[in-house]
Amino acid sequence: MSLMPQVPFGTQPGTPGPITPSGPSIPQFPGTQGSFPSPIGPPPGGGTFSPQPLAPFGPPPGQGPFSPPPGPIGPGGPGPQAQAPTAPPPQFTPPKPLVTAYAIDPQAISGCLFRNTFIWLTNGERFWLYPVFVGRTSVAGFRWNGFFWTYYGVDTNRIESFSCFW
Predict the structure, then answer these.
(1) What angle do CA 121, 153, 131 make, to 5 degrees?
(2) What is the value of pTM for the model shown?
(3) Residue 4 binned pLDDT confidence (cut-offs 50, 70, 90)
């Protein structure tokens, strides 16, 4: 009787098993059935570890980066009831106010919520906006592009002046 471990014919003790198309096989310890036993025992609670799927990055399905976020109107942001106006804005361009503040106060522009508002930006752009949300440093709503309303947001420090209408 030999004290040497029994190995399949054609292999050497202490070397990997036969080479297969996917690479060399890994030697196994008796009784492990292809996995190593845990040095610290089973996971808490008895069972086995099963990883949970992670949520994908980015906005929820069906909501792009320029879509209004879901939720109620007000501090939580615009929701499904914050819809674009059904009619175009007035066809005139209002006169720009002569006196403009250095920075637009969000509380002042909040009086224009859900009203046609003409906006002048510091870069010279001007357009109609139908605001549905006013935050501490930003305004969001629907901007008229000449053909239809699109969701739009802007920092209040980029607004040079505004004028709202019924």
Answers:
(1) 85
(2) 0.53
(3) low
